[in-house]
Structures are given as structure tokens and as C-alpha cells.
Amino acid sequence: MLQYVTINMDGALLRVAKGTSVLDAALEYGVCIPHLCHVPNLSDMGACRLCIVEHVVNGKAKVTTSCTLRVQEGMVIKSNTDKIQRLRRNIAELLVAEAPNSRAIQDIAARCGVKTVRYPFRNEKCVLCGRCVRVCKEMFAANAIGFVGRGKERRVASPFGKLSEFCKRCNTCLEVCPMTITPCAGPMKPGEEYLCNKCESQLMEIASAPDQCFFCDLGEGFQCSRH
Amino acid sequence: MTKFANAAALEGFRRELLRQRDSIKGTVTICGGTGCQTSQAKKVIDALRAELARRGLTKEIHLRPTGCHGFCEQGPLMVVEPGKVFYCHITPDDAAEIVEKTVIKGEVIQRLLYTDPVSGKKIHSEDDIPFYRAQDRQLLSQNRQVNPLDINDYIAIGGYASLAKTLAKMKPKSVIDEVAASGLRGRGGGGFPTGRKWLECHDAPGEEKYVICNADEGDPGAYMDRCVLEGNPHLVLEGMMIGAFAVGASQGYVYVRNEYPLAVEHVRAAVDQARELGLLGEKILGSRFSFDVEIARGGGAFVCGESTALMASLEGTVGEPRAKDVHTVVDGLWHKPTVLNNVETWANVPSIMGKGAAWFKAKGSKGSKGTKILALTGHIKNTGLVEVAMGTPLRTVLYDIGGGPSRSKDIKAVQTGGPSGGCLPASKFDLPVDFDALYDAGSMVGSGGMVVMDQGTCMVDVAKYFLDFLQDESCGKCVPCRLGIDRMLEIVTAISEGRGKPEHLPLLEDLAETMSLTALCGLGKTAANPVLSTLRYFRDEYEAHIKQGQCPAGVCQALIEYNIDESKCTACGACLRACPYHAIQGKKKEPHHIVAAQCQKCGICHAECKFDAIQVA
Amino acid sequence: MPPRAIKAILEGRRSQPQQLIEVLQDVQADYGYISEEAMRAVAEGLGVQPLEVYRVASFYKAFSLKPQGKHVITMCTGTACHVRGAKLLLDQAQGQLGVKPGDMTDDGLFTIAHVNCLGACALGPVVTENGASHHHMNPGRLRKLIDNLRKEEKAEVSHD
């Protein structure tokens, strides 16, 4: 039988199944916590850090990722404080500067309130969110791609740079990739480090109540679990 | 050899050892640590051994190669007993004379004595050398007394007696209470109370538990763990055994850096010898406690100093940290409760159990007890390993023990705590070596590395150096660490090349806050510290780079030029031969000059010139 | 010593995935680098996926996936060596040999590398040549070290 616990999220009491993550609990109840590397039903690695929340223990708030945090009875979570918003914006800014050509990442950046980007754009092809790696490993048990190298050299690759014999050519890795969704048409060249506002116009409605889920268009863009 | 059946058998063996050693007339202790081996210690040891054998003195004179004595700058070094005569910079050619004069006749060879750089006087005995005198060498002094490859040496000085006492007379819980009462805090960097860690692991559910010794000393500029493990491996093992007994573990691991081959060799030998004597294995010393240790070599990754990454590495996978919402004391190696302590922390345990918590607590400051080993390096006269009571002011370490700056320039800053720590300016030298005090000042004690920097060091360059290091060593898993360090490096590089903008400084601070609060592991959370601390104390240097386009210390290559002062150039040709880029031209007896287009500004000519003719502008 | 066969290195450690790093250390020590062939053999011997072996081999600094020169000149670039001018040494080696760190010279004689700390900080800057360390190095001494190694190699060639 499923056991339930009650947690306090931004003042609201949520009753959720024991063992779920705080992020899943929030999304289930329509609390919008931005996230990128989280894929429903796959393990969470806490790589993108966008889903950070404040976990209050003994009156002290600790910043932690909600995807790796399991619910516990009586847990107090603040998902959208000024501090969290500021930190999320900075992380989203780092991401969008890396891949301004990704529609999904642009959407996330707009969602997190990034207006201008303080770093030169780079147009990287991959932001190492690891969605493809986990889908390949956990859903298809293929392990055909994985993280290789470390630090600056870290990349997603197949063993020895050759197509793995275990690859089933299912293309799911492409489907979950935030870089393969229709690229944005906005001015995203190095030297033009600003967002085009096209995404933002979609967000006008959301901006008035930023912590609630409206099943926004951009949710589809970054494949939010609600969609 | 037979295994010890109980504590009394161990004590009996020790007495017998001491009785046998009574006939020894003198001891020649020679440092064979990595530092001294770099300076030919092995050849000196061989020469001495041959000389003693030639004179038939092998039985009367005990030649003891040991681990590091700490005064690496003076190596190879030795101490001749009786008399504690201290010789430094010995060469293999000195062996015969040392045996002839000092060992046999008790005469002192003036030439080999240490000269105090301050007074210029020769010093006979180790005890009178200022470098040693101002220290409190609880752990390091044992290095001199044992040959790390001979367990008998360790037993002779009372080794494993603390283990015997613990096993015979104490309950696990009372061991933990004793360690907690001592106030011992983790020596690896975090300063977490050891007793509390052990208690949490002890209380964690599960039959199978592990203890790990972290000897993956990755901090550049720190090597105290190497010296302790290399010089006195049994001390570390004994500490681990006591810890394993306390938390209920029956398997331990020592995770050693692969860059420390000598430490790997010594700890392997130590484990074998301990097994032979029944100090590792089933039912140790007749108790119900069984325990064994395995040695694992690290693969060379700084991030493996992080507990979860180290455990992943022990499991044979990539050393990536994972989220620690459940602590490793509950969910650690193979998902079992695990205590991970650093080498120096384990090494402190036997004496706490042997002499009691009160003895340990008597040394140190309010929040930091006991002694701490520091690695003193950089622009300082006496480089080496230093052990002081916690709470000792930095000034004492730098000037009384370290002897002050090594060049004619004043000390500008001391970098403590490695890449997770920070740079403290001279105005903070009255701060004590204390976990909390240094943390509050924007740095940390860390594992104890202290790199001294004089006025010839550019703090922007230092920040850039650490970012470079961290970018190389970050696992790259999480965004704030990977991209944060990357962007910081981009900005600091721009500043060092004169392309910095005033808005870069607040951006660095903003980014630093994001990294410290949101990164996945300790490496990322502290990665911004070198930048933050240099910004805090040396902001004027950043501003000089940005506003005036100048590097005050003359280090940043893009902002300087090398020229040859013709009046000083003797046309010796040293710079011409030295330049790897062939950027220096000149004929014999004619002043040389630098071809600007070819010059890579590496500064090699500047370092080579003996006449100070090459100038930085 | 001729390198042991991968089979011999795996002896006694077959089907023990946790031994992966230790086994790769031995392969690296014997062969000087880890080839794709070796990684595949290790994967099979230990019962781990080839991808996992590749990941581990590419993650840790101790492993090289490219063949290394006969003489590996390693510059310590730890903090203590850095403040005493380790960068000059790297410049010297790069300029003199014309290769970047991690790469091998065309004649296969030299590879230059840097390591983040050798733990001989008090004696910095430290340089090791195939494991033998040299302390208090400066660009001039490094130049001579490399020149001498070159000369020895030439002498050997002419003797052959």
C-alpha cells in the first residue's frame, strides 16, 4: 500500500506518496519549478540545478535541488523566494549563453527572468543535461552513449567514438534533447547578447503569478513533466 | 612470526624488542621521504650502509631510513644519536667522514651543520634550530623514530598499545564519546567534528559498515598526508582500526593518490606486516573484533577528495559526486554506512585513545583542538612541513618558523586551504590557525597547505591559476561549477590581458554567490573562494589591470614588455641561448636585444640573466 | 621489461568490476597508454560495459589514451611550484620541443605533461623525467636535461 506524507510547500500543505521527489510533488500539484535535466520516470542526477528550492530545517534555509530531495513528513519547502529566483536566473543565464540557439533553453531562460546576458554567446551544440544518456541507459538498457572525459573535456559520446553495437537506433536520445527542438529565429549571434522578447510575450500571463503552472507553450519546449 | 594472542603478548613483544635494542650504541636516522629522495637521499643511505658494513658496525649502529622530517629544503638530512647532531644537504661522499668522525668518535663536522640564516651561526642539535623549536610536533616527531617499513620500530615506541587498550577495556560507544570529548575535527578541509561523524555512522542501521582513509591529497601545495602515510603508516592504520571498532566496521580502505608511489609502497608493506602479526584479520588481539584493510590507488582526480566521488571511485567507476541529501555516514560506499576521514585525522586517534581526550583538548584554540600539520611553501626561507598547536598565529608560522621571505621582497599574502581556500593579506597575519577564524576571513585551514606569496606575485594571476586548475579538475557534471568556473576564467583572463571592464568585478561576485549556493558538491561550492578572497583583499590590483591596463607585479604577460638594458648587458649570451623562441639577437661583445615580434613574454631570459639587464616594463 | 599481456594483468581480478581502476593503472604502467583494444579486453575480462571502461579511462588523469613518447617530461604545476615559476618551465619545454602538453614529438622521443602536484612542494619547481624527479628546476636546467636526453638518443642510434 502506498504511504503518504504531508509536506509544506510555499505555505500550502501537499499530500504526496512517500519516496517521490520534491520536484515531482510540486509538479503534481501544479507548482511550477523550472527544470531541464529532469525527465519523468528516469533517475535524477541534479546536473542543471534549475530546480533549486529552499529546504527549511530548524529555521535554517538550505538551497538544494528538488529533483534529488525525497519528501519527508513535515518537510518545509520554499520554491520561489527572491533568493531562489535570483540564483535560478543566474544559472539560466549561464545556460542560455552557452546555447542561445536552443528554443528550449531560451524558453527556460525567459521563464527564469533572464532579460540580458552578461556573457558572450557560444552556440554550443550540447549543454550536458544528460537526458539522452539516462534515457538510453534506463529506458532501453542500451548504454550506447555516456559522459566521457571530465571538466571542460566532458562530452556525450559513444564508446571509443564509434557507434555502439548496443545502439538500437531508436532515436529517443534525439527526442529528449533540448537542442533538437525547432531553433529560435531570434538574433542569437555572439555580440548580440540579448533575448528577442518573442518568448517573453508568451509569458506575459505567467509573469503575474509565476509560481503556478498554466500549461504554458514553453512547457512543451523544454518538455516539462506536466505535458 | 606468530600472531599476538592478546594485549599482554603485544606488550611482551615490545619489552623483548627494547631489551634487544639495548645493545645498540648509536642510531643514524636519515630522512628518506619523497622530498629528500628527490635530492639523492637514497644514494646517501646506500653509502652509509656500505660504510657501516665495511667497518663491521652494522650491529652496534642502527641505520634507520625514515619518512619525512619536515625540513625538506635542507635535504637530504640526518640526525645522529646520541647527541641529536643534525646534518643537512648531505651527499654520498660525506658518508665515510660522518661514520669516521661523528658516529665513531662523536665529533661534529662543522661543514654539514645547519646555518641559521638570521644569525648566521652554525647549530649543532636539531632541538636548537628555530624551524623546529617553535613547533609542537606531536605527529611529525614520530616520523623520526620509525622506519616505515619496519613494524617493530612502531611497536617499540608504544604503537598499537592504544588499540590493545581500546579492544580490551572499552565499548564502541565510549570510544566515540572519548573522540567527541577531545574536540577532534576533520583535518581534510571541512573541519567536521569527528566524534559526531562516528556517532551518526554507529547509529545508522545496517550490519555492514566501512571506514575509509582519504589519502587522495589533491590540494596543490599540500603534502602533509603524504608524509604521515609514507613516514608512519602504522599510526594511520591503528587509527582506522580504532575507528572501525567504534562504528562497527569490519572492512577498511585506504585511497591513496597514484602520484605518491612511495606512500602506496609503504602502506602496502604496513598492511602485510600487521596481518602477519594478527593486528589485522580475524579476532584481533583475542577480541571479537575482526577487521581488514585494502589499498586502492586513485586515478588522479582532485574531485575524488569529495567523499561521494571518492566512494564512486572505490567502486571502480567515474569519480563524480552525487547529491548528498542523505549523508555518507548512512548511505556511503556500496550504499552502506561509511566513515571517511583524512590521513591526519586518523593519525590523531591513537594518541587520543592512549593519552585521553583531556590531553588532546589541552592544546589548541576554543573551537579547534590539538595540533595541525601545515605545508609551508612558496616564497619563504624555510619551506617544509610544520606542526603547530591550533590557534598559533599565522605570523609565528611565517616568520618564527618559516624565517620570513626568501627573496628581497616582502610577503604580500599567504594562500591557505588550497583551491577551496583563499589568499590572506599581511594585515591578517595575526589571525590564528583555527578552522573558524580563517573561514570568517574568507579562507580556510583546509588540509593545511600554506603557499607564501611575495610582492612579485600578481593576485589576478593567482586567481587565474586556481580557476585554471579547477576547470581542469571539475568533473563537469553540474552547471554552476562547470560553466561558472569557465565564465570566471574567461573574465579573469580578460582582466589579466587588459580587456577587463569595471562591471566585471560585480559580475564575478554575483557569479561566485550562485556557485557557492547551488553547485552540487564541495568542489563547486568553494571554487569561487580564490577569486572572492583576492577580490576582497586585493581589489586594487584588479582595478589597476582594468583601469590603468597595468600589472603592478609585472607578471601578466599581455601587460608587460621585456627590454634589455644595454648599459648592463655584458653580451654573455645566456639569454640568447635560453630563449626557446629565438627572439633574442646579438653578436659577441655587443649588447643583445629582443625582437618584439617573436617574443612570447615567457620571462625565461629575465630568470636567466645574472646581470639584471633584462627589465620588465 | 616487456609489457604483460592484458590477460596476465586481469589474472585473479576477472569479473570484479570494482577493480577497473586498478587494472587500468597496471595497463597504463605496462603499455604507457591504454588502447581501444586493451579497453575492450578489460571490459570483457571484468564484465563491465565497454562504455564504462572508456568513461573511466577518459576521466582520470592517470590514464593516457594516446601513445606516449619514450621520455615523458612532467612539469609539476602545483601552487607552490607555480609561484616559483613552473610556468616558465612549461614554456621552455613547449618552445624547445614544439609540442603542447599531452602531445608527443614527431620522432616519438618526448611527451610533455603537467601534473597538479607531486607533493614535493618544498623543493619546487619540480620536474620528473619518466618518474625520476629533479628539484629546484629553472628553464636553463630543463633545457640541458632535454638536450642531454636528445644527445643520448642520438648516440644510441649511431651505435645501432
Summarize the structure.
With 617 residues, chain B is of the alpha/beta class. Chain B is 41% helix and 14% strand. Chain B has five domains: 22-126, Glutaredoxin (3-Layer(aba) Sandwich), CATH 3.40.30.10; 151-358, Rossmann fold; 371-454, Ubiquitin-like (UB roll); 459-548, de novo design (two linked rop proteins) (Up-down Bundle), CATH 1.20.1440; 561-616, Alpha-Beta Plaits, CATH 3.30.70.20.
Q: Mind explaining what this structure looks like?
A:
The complex is a heterotrimer of chains A (227), B (617) and C (160). Chain A contains 8 helices and 7 strands; from the N terminus they run ββαβββαααββαααα. Chain A has helices at 22-28, 82-98, 103-111, 131-139, 172-175, 198-202, 204-208, 217-221; strands at 4-9, 12-17, 52-57, 60-65, 76-78, 146-148, 155-157. Chain A has a 5-stranded mixed β-sheet, with helices on both faces. A two-stranded antiparallel ribbon of chain A has the order 6-7. Chain C has helices at 6-10, 20-31, 36-46, 50-59, 79-83, 86-97, 139-159; strands at 71-76, 110-115, 127-129, 132-134. In chain C, strand 3 (127-129) and strand 4 form a beta hairpin. The chains are: A alpha+beta (227), B alpha/beta (617), C alpha+beta (160). Chain A binds chain C through residues 143-150, 153, 157-160, 164, 166, and chain C through 36, 39, 49-55, 58-59.
Describe the secondary-structure layout:
The complex is a heterotrimer of chains A (227), B (617) and C (160).
Chain A: E1 4-9, E2 12-17, H1 22-28, E3 52-57, E4 60-65, E5 76-78, H2 82-98, H3 103-111, H4 131-139, E6 146-148, E7 155-157, H5 172-175, H6 198-202, H7 204-208, H8 217-221
Parallel strand pairs in A: 1-5
Antiparallel strand pairs in A: 1-2, 3-4, 3-5, 6-7
Helix pairs in contact in A: 2-3
Chain B: H1 7-21, E1 26-31, H2 34-38, H3 41-54, E2 61-66, E3 78-81, E4 85-87, H4 95-105, E5 114-115, E6 122-123, H5 130-133, H6 140-143, H7 151-156, H8 161-169, H9 172-182, H10 194-203, E7 210-215, H11 224-231, H12 233-247, E8 251-256, H13 261-276, E9 292-297, H14 307-314, E10 338-342, H15 343-355, H16 357-361, E11 371-378, E12 384-389, H17 394-401, E13 411-416, E14 422-425, H18 435-440, E15 449-454, H19 459-473, H20 479-496, H21 504-518, H22 522-526, H23 529-537, H24 539-548, E16 562-564, H25 574-578, E17 584-585, E18 593-594, H26 604-608, E19 614-616
Parallel strand pairs in B: 1-2, 7-8, 7-10, 8-9, 11-15
Antiparallel strand pairs in B: 1-3, 3-4, 5-6, 11-12, 13-14, 13-15, 16-19, 17-18
Chain C: H1 6-10, H2 20-31, H3 36-46, H4 50-59, E1 71-76, H5 79-83, H6 86-97, E2 110-115, E3 127-129, E4 132-134, H7 139-159
Parallel strand pairs in C: 1-2
Antiparallel strand pairs in C: 1-3, 3-4
